[in-house]
From TrEMBL:
GO terms for molecular function: chorismate mutase activity; NAD+ binding; prephenate dehydrogenase (NAD+) activity; prephenate dehydrogenase (NADP+) activity. GO terms for biological process: chorismate metabolic process; tyrosine biosynthetic process. InterPro entries: 6-PGluconate_DH-like_C_sf (IPR008927), Chor_mut/prephenate_DH_T (IPR008244), Chorismate_II_sf (IPR036263), CM_dom_sf (IPR036979), CM_II_prokaryot (IPR002701), CM_T (IPR011277), NAD(P)-bd_dom_sf (IPR036291), PDH_C (IPR046825). It comes from the Bacteria. This is T-protein. The gene is tyrA. It comes from Photobacterium halotolerans. Pathway: Amino-acid biosynthesis; L-tyrosine biosynthesis; (4-hydroxyphenyl)pyruvate from prephenate (NAD(+) route): step 1/1; Metabolic intermediate biosynthesis; prephenate biosynthesis; prephenate from chorismate: step 1/1. Its main location: cytoplasm. In the C-terminal section; belongs to the prephenate/arogenate dehydrogenase family. It catalyses: chorismate = prephenate; prephenate + NAD(+) = 3-(4-hydroxyphenyl)pyruvate + CO2 + NADH. Gene3D superfamilies: 6-phosphogluconate dehydrogenase C-terminal like domain, Chorismate mutase, NAD(P)-binding Rossmann-like Domain. It is found in: Cytoplasm.
Length: 375
């Protein structure tokens, strides 16, 4: 038996080596694709091409008795690496005549990411950091674009501190709230203004499949090149008004981060053994616990700024608190009928999205389980 297993395992090892060689060849081809895309200004992420390719490979896998989900998992992971490697090819510069881009707060994590993207696209980039304000006039006098990326609570203050910019200079911000910053930019600058909110953190390897929300301010024709440049980087754009943006962020960011914060505080006060919780966890609870723990591995000041950035955030959290109390009353009364009625009402509100989210979460949970090591 030992000899038989050893022979089979040797064959598996040989196949694995062939897979590694094929992946290396694929990445080399992707690098060549990146150079072509860079020359012609094509986005690194082409959703139609990706969808068609995955459909073809799934069919080919099924024809050979290979589970289609298996080949899709392998290809999606491979493509993620491919998108990251395409960054190294650089990007076509859509506005080569643009004067220098000044990133205010460019030494921060998000600022460094955008400085790198602009530089990979061939733009001249300058940084105005917190220690550089004595040189602000010199740095900004011939700016073609100014991007403000500083902590939320300082954003409007920093915008007001800017000296007069050239009339055709594009003024933008990267803040996760929009109404206040966009209005402030419109007040201090008479030229083109746009509010941007990258819906991702600075630790991403590629903008492929990421979302950048933008809010028009003034003279959108003057910054259309910027939006197209962001798309070349691989991101999808979502246009929305500043007011609608902030209303959405109340749920997407403020309430979500606050509930994670409270759950983390509750866990710390209850003080269970984390290793024991993990050993007992199903993949879904492990993933939920990881998402809460992830919050506390980051900057507490940032999350305080996000949660406390608007009175409407507090109002939403209070409404959530009230509904939490209503749910507790159902439990206290052991009213299963009321629970089922509320459950059915929410299920109806989700509609077809409930099934869709179930399928998406199953895929995520399989990946989470794959990454788990027990023993």
């Amino acid at each position: 038996m030992v000899a038989e297993l050893s022979t089979l395992r040797d064959q598996i090892d040989e196949v694995d080596k062939q897979m590694v060689a094929l992946l290396a060849r694929r990445l080399a081809l992707v690098e060549e694709v990146g150079h072509v895309k860079s020359q012609h200004g094509l986005p690194i992420y082409a959703p139609d091409r990706e969808a068609a390719m995955l459909a073809s490979r799934r069919q080919e896998a099924a024809d050979q008795g290979v589970p289609p989900d298996l080949i899709e998992d392998i290809l999606r992971r491979t493509m993620r690496e491919s998108y990251a490697s395409e960054n190294d090819s650089g990007f076509k510069c859509l506005k080569p005549e643009l004067r220098p881009i000044v990133v205010v707060g460019g030494h921060g994590q998000l600022g460094r990411l955008f400085c790198r993207l602009f530089e990979l696209s061939g733009y001249q980039v300058r940084i105005l950091g917190s220690q550089d304000w004595d040189k602000a006039d010199e740095l900004l006098k011939d700016a073609g674009m100014v991007v403000v990326t500083v902590p939320i609570h300082l954003t409007e203050q920093v915008i007001r501190r800017l000296p007069q910019l050239p009339d055709d200079c594009v003024l933008a911000d990267l803040t996760s709230i929009k109404s206040g910053p966009v209005q402030t930019m419109l007040e201090v600058h008479q030229g083109p203004v746009v509010g941007l909110h990258p819906m991702f953190g600075p630790d991403i390897s590629s903008l492929a499949k990421q979302v950048v929300v933008y809010c028009d301010g003034r003279n959108p024709e003057s910054y259309q090149w910027l939006l197209e440049q962001i798309q070349i980087w691989g991101a999808s754009l979502n246009r929305i008004s500043a007011i609608e943006h902030d209303q959405g962020m109340t749920l997407i960011q403020a309430l979500r981060h606050f509930t994670s914060f409270v759950y983390g505080v509750h866990l710390a006060e209850e003080d269970p053994r984390l290793d024991q919780l993990l050993s007992l966890s199903s993949p879904i609870y492990r993933l939920e616990l990881a998402m809460v723990g992830r919050l506390f591995a980051q900057d507490g000041q940032l999350y305080a700024d996000i949660i406390m950035s608007s009175p409407q955030n507090l109002a939403m959290i209070k409404r959530f608190h009230q509904r939490f109390g209503d749910a507790i009353a159902i439990l206290e009364n052991k009213d299963k009928a009321a629970f089922k009625q509320a459950f059915d009402q929410v299920e109806g509100w989700f509609g077809d999205y409930a099934g869709r989210f179930l399928k998406e979460s199953q895929s995520l949970l399989r990946q989470a389980n794959d990454a788990t090591h027990r023993g």
